[in-house]
Structure formats: structure tokens, C-alpha cells
Description:
The chain is α+β, with helices and mostly antiparallel strands. Mean pLDDT is 77; it is low at 166-192 and 236-241. 40% of the residues lie in helices and 12% in strands. It has a three-stranded antiparallel sheet with strand order 3-5-4, with helices on one face. A two-stranded antiparallel sheet has the order 1-2. It is built from eight helices and five strands; from the N terminus they run E-E-H-H-H-H-H-E-H-E-H-E-H. The protein starts with a strand and ends in a 10-residue tail after the last helix. A hairpin with a 4-residue loop joins strand 1 (5-13) and strand 2 (18-26). The chain is globular.
Amino acid sequence: xxxxxxxxxxxxxxxxxxxxxxxxxxxxxxxxxxxxxxxxxxxxxxxxxxxxxxxxxxxxxxxxxxxxxxxxxxxxxxxxxxxxxxxxxxxxxxxxxxxxxxxxxxxxxxxxxxxxxxxxxxxxxxxxxxxxxxxxxxxxxxxxxxxxxxxxxxxxxxxxxxxxxxxxxxxxxxxxxxxxxxxxxxxxxxxxxxxxxxxxxxxxxxxxxxxxxxxxxxxxxxxxxxxxxxxxxxxxxxxxx
Length: 241
């Protein structure tokens, strides 16, 4: 509502066991990051509450998204074909819709505290794509907000080597302090620069650290006895719990 970004998206990459929050076309990337973090804090701390109307709207949107993936015969056949490789049960879509329908406000708050707060831990990977002229400024401001240190800046011609180079972990120490960050020139098409930070080892879920550790979920689902009961209940297992 403050005009900080044109939009946002939260994706559950279940096969990779990752959650991905994207803020795109940001007028002020650092302020947009801070605002997104504050929204999570307000709900996780109890300052804001999840209303049934908001939850119903979210469930309706999610239901439409799930159904649209198998809305035609070709997509329905394709999903069944893919299921054979991913190990998903044949009636996964129907089962998933039934699970969405059962979600209540307490479940949503549990998911927020357990899975969304770690997105803002310093261990979570942060990647920024920006115009060359803003690269150094964003590397410093977003780095301070996320890890307390400037983000490294990768030259465009370094991206392939760094991001697919045998699993090498990127960190600020490899690139030095802010005085060494150099804006990179864009290509004729105006290709952007990229900054990245984090170890990629943020466990999410109950493996919380740093920022997210202050928000402890005390609902029945977080009771070890409840988790054991679920494990032996015989219920269908989703791709990512």
C-alpha cells in the first residue's frame, strides 16, 4: 500500500524443500524488504491477527491455483504422468484440496511462525537483481538489513561460474567490504547486476535460528507427542510437511 513494490509472491518449491519470497519491481527494495519483514513480525508477535475473512480469501485463491493446474485434459494427463516420477499419489490434487479446506486460522499462524519467519534469518539466501547504478547502494543497505554486513556484488559474467560452481558457498568475506564493491556495466539490453548473501543452510521449520528464534510456536502441532501421533496415523504424506 505504500508503493514500495508492484507485487510479491510466496512459492512453496516442494520438490526442492524450499520457500521462496519474491518482491518484484521495487521502488525502494530496502524499504520493501523491511515492510515485508514487519508484516510477518506483526502476525508472529500477536500484534495482528488472521481474520477468518482473510483466510477464506487466501484459501479460495490457492484452491483456484491448484485446480487451474489440471483444468484441461492435457494438463490433467500430464500431472498424472509426472506423478509417476515424483512419487505423488494418483489422487494428490483431490487430497491437497481437502487439506486446504481443513486449514484454520490457528494452522495458518503455526505455518507463519514455523516456516515464514526463517525467511528473514541471516542464514536465508537473499538475491537482488538491480540496475548497475544502484548495485553498490543496495548491496550495503540490504546487506545491513539482512545479515548486518554488505552483500557481495557479482559481475554479470561471473554469475554462471559462481552460482553453478560445484556448490561453493558464497559469503561476504569472499568479496570484501563495501569499498571493494564495484557497480557493473549493463549490456546493450540493460541486463541487471545481482547481489547475493546467505549460506543456503537455513533449515526453516523447527530448525530456527537468529531472527526467527524469538517467535516460538506453542500450538498443539509443535508438541512432540502430537508429531509422533501424526507420524503413525497413516495419513497421506504431502511432498513437504
